[in-house]
Structure formats: structure tokens, C-alpha cells
Hints:
Chain A has helices spanning 113-137, 163-178, 209-214, 241-275; strands spanning 25-29, 37-43, 46-56, 70-77, 149-158, 186-195, 201-205, 217-223, 228-234, 238-239. By secondary structure, chain A is of the alpha+beta class. By secondary structure, chain B is of the alpha+beta class. Helices cover 29% and strands 31% of the residues of chain B. Chain B is built from five helices and 14 strands. Chain B starts with 8 loop residues before the first helix and ends in a 12-residue tail after the last helix.
Amino acid sequence: xxxxxxxxxxxxxxxxxxxxEIRRFSAKMATTTAADGSSYVEHGxxxxxxxxxxxxxxxxxxxxxxxxxxITVDVCFAAFSGxxxxxxxxxxxxxxxxxxxxxxxxxxxxxxxxxxxRAQSKRRVLEMQSALSRTFASxxxxxxxPRSEVHISLHILSQDGSILATxxxxxxxxxxxxxxxxxxxxxxxxxxxxxxxxxxxEPLLDMNSAEEMDLxxxxxxxxxxxxxxxxxxxxxxxRLERLEGMLAVGLDGCGKIRQLLDEVVRxxxxxxxxxxxx
Amino acid sequence: MPRxxxxxxxxxxxxxxxLNQKLRIDGRDLDSFxxxxxxxxDDYGLADVRLGKTRVLARVSAEVVKPFADRPFEGIFTIxxxxxxMASPAFEPGRQTEQEVLLSRLIEKAIRRSxxxxxxxxxxxxxxxxxxxxxxxxxxSHDGALVDASCIAVVAALQxxxxxxxxxxxxxxxxxxxxxxxxxxxxxxxxPICVTFSFYLDGxxxxxxxxxxxxxxxxxxxxxxxxxxxxxxxxSKAGGLAINALNLLRCAKVALVKVGEITxxxxxxxxxxxxxRVRRDNLLESKADNERA
Lengths: 278, 293
């Protein structure tokens, strides 16, 4: 286990939150004028900017389907998004930068920094892109726009855990801004599973990067108010019995995020109405 | 770019109508695997898995290399996969498609990142020499459930594999040939098994071990990796149809039962193979854990 306490005996986490609290969440819509829809989401220290273009004519021939719109996703990590703290090496999970320093430890699971650093992280980004595109493909009403493409471009400006979840939330806001027809909000959050000293487990909502490094955790995305899960990812070993508790806390967290996103959308709508653009 | 032929409209409606009545076209139950056939080669570390018409071959090999500078006490374990045209005409050689990347990432997370193989036991001289274990996965025939089949193949091959014994005297490292000393098995910490669920009809029907046709028609999928001790190694539900949380938990419980069955089958086949080897090679007296002279 780590040298510092993930959860103090008083029930506070390293950043002072309780087990069911999410970090400070703030979001804006329509941040870029060039795109059809855009958003900026800050979730604690994780910052993501997203722009959506579409439905547009497909740019690649194989992205054309006569039945529905295809959804393409680009995920790009800004070179300055990570930190240089040594202990973060392992958590440098999603960086697309080639790992050059031979002293930098790779993520858990055994060596390979020199041999595989670049290829590994490339594949990780590709996996993220595919998960995002498939998540939105099932929620957007793609059948309304055959032979077109909806392009979602995500830039991660700062990484501090829950990156995939923040990407989902940012993309949802940008898609709302772009006016792409969708059935409901897709909202995502993460849950860690903390082991108390007495071996009992305690789910912790919304992991930051320190927690992400030390604890097993899930990322989940739900559709609207329902408890239907469209995205669920777990990458570290955890007891099966703990899944239920994590899911329950996660569904609750997604509900909270949905409310926050809804407030942002309504605020933005009111603003537009005031400005006379509606 | 070649594509897998989509099922025709007739096939599609037939399969989905049948699923609506809880029937599969090959007569299986909704939550049963196809017949798992597992064979081993003459050499150590070759496993040939057949699940119905899906066939996957895994080959494990070892060589001595220098460990990574950042992990001097650990050996190296790599898994390589390549979807070639042998499995299906839809796969092109030498080209990394999205499907292949996702598949190899999944196997990687299921087996390598869950620490199924104890890499620290592969160290020979810290920072100088270690074993590199390499698992090559070959897909010979594609009829769905490639992830499940290749995961079984890799874990079976890893358990079957024996590496040459090594002795160290001061600075001198001797690698003994297979005839000189009985080769030693790898230290396997747990046996992860993947179970892929496919969802149909807005989540009302959930299949295990879908065939290629069923895979093409599914609305969503989820791969759960577990070991028989009930430890989740990996879950990957990357989008697709949104499924009720309770259904997902039910899937996980079903998966645990299936994992137990598959682990038992793999174990039984390994023991059968070991028994054959003992008779054939007269190995009864020569065990790796015997006292050395």
C-alpha cells in the first residue's frame, strides 16, 4: 500500500472529500466558434475541451454508411497535460508522448517502457476513442442522418484521474450544443474500491489520479436518469463481491453529474434566450 | 478494404426471431459455451483451442534477455496477436485494424496486467539476465468469440510450458538443456478466463459465446475476465446497448460459474497430457522439484 493515507480514519480522502463526494465540477458550453458544438469541462484538476462537428459529409470513404451517421472520435493529450512528478509515471496512463526516460517506471503489469512505451499508449488512446464512439453511437439518433459523420474531438489539457469519464461528459455537452439529436444525456463517473484496515470494502466516488494509481476502480457511463449502463470499464483486479457496491455508488454519481450537466445546459439556454440568439 | 459478409435480411430476421423465443440456431442454451476442445502439441507450450468452428493456437516460448532498466528484478512477458487472412478473408495481413488493437488490449489486460504470470520469478541475475516469455497467438479460424478462445489458449499454453532450468555459480549462468535437467514450469499466480456476453433485443436476451453471425447481429457486448477465486481481472463494456445494472451483475455471476467450468476443463486436459507424457518419456522419477545431486 502507499505511504500516505487514501482514506483517513475520520473518513476523509487526501483532498478532503468524503467517500460519496465528487470533485469541483464546472463546465461551459459553446466555447469555440469554429465548431458546430463545443464545451469545456473541469472536473477537479482534469480539464477537457471538446468540439463537435456534424452531421457533416464523411471525410473518409469508409466512414459512410447508408443506414446511419457514423461517429468518429479523436482524443488528443496535450503535451503539458501530465506532470513530471516521478511517482506519477505509472499513472501516466493515457499520455501519447513516447516514454523516453529509462528511469521512468511504466504502469503496473511489468516492464516494457523502452520497448513498448509509444505503441502501448497509442493503442490505449485508440481503445478510448473506440469506447467513446461506440458509447455515443448507441445514444445518438444516428438513423436520422444517414451517409454523414459526427466528429467528436477531445483535447485533454490536464490529467488528474477520471479522464475517460470527463471525456464522456464533455462530449455530451458539446453534442447538446451542436444540436445532434440524442435520446438523453450520457454521463460518466468513476468509483474506486478502498479496503479498510479491517478488510471491509468502501467505494469511493470519483477517483483522482493518486487514487486511480493505488486502488482498483471502475469507469461507468449511464444513459439519462435510468440505471442503464452503456460503458463499464475495470482494469485492475478486484473481488467480484465488490462490484455491486461500486456500481450502486457509481450510478448515484452519474445521477449527480447528470444534474450538473443539466444545470449547465439550462443556464446556457437561458443565456442564449437573454442574448436574443434563440 | 475487405469486409466480413453481413448476414442477409432473411438470416437476420430468422436468428433474431429465434432469439426472441430464447432459441439459438445451433440449438445451444443461451448461456452455454460451444464444445471446448483443447489439445497440446508435442513440445511444451503449444495449445490448440477449438470452440465450435473457432480455432486459436497459442505458442509460448522463452529466451534470455536483459531486463528493462526500470524493472531489474522482473522478467518480461509479452503477448502478440495477429489477425491474418487465415482466420477470415476479412482480415488483411500486416495491418493493425481497430478490431485487432481492441482484441490484443483486452487479452493484455486480462492476462498480463492481472499478473497471471509471476514475472519476478523470471529473473535470473538482477539487472543482467532474465527470461522473456513470449506468447504468440495465431487465429486459425474465426467463428466468433475470438477473445474467449485466445484467452483460454494463452493461459493453457502458459501452464503447459516448461522453461529450461538455470543454475548460477557466482557470475556464471548455465542454462541446462531439456535433456540435461528436467525443465521447470512457469509460476502462474492465477488463471484468468474471459467470458463475452452479447446483448440482443434491447437487453432482454443475453448470449454467451456468440458465433460470428450472432456477433454481427448483436447490439452490444461485454467481456468479463475472472478467475475461479472470484477475482475480477477486467471488465470491458465499451459502449453498445445500455444494459441495466442488475442484468450486468447477473452476467458477472453467470460468468463466475462458466469460469469455474472452463478452468476445470483446462486443468483436466493438462493432467491428461501430463499423464501421457509421463508414460511416453518415462518421467516418473525425474521431477523438477526433486533433490539435485
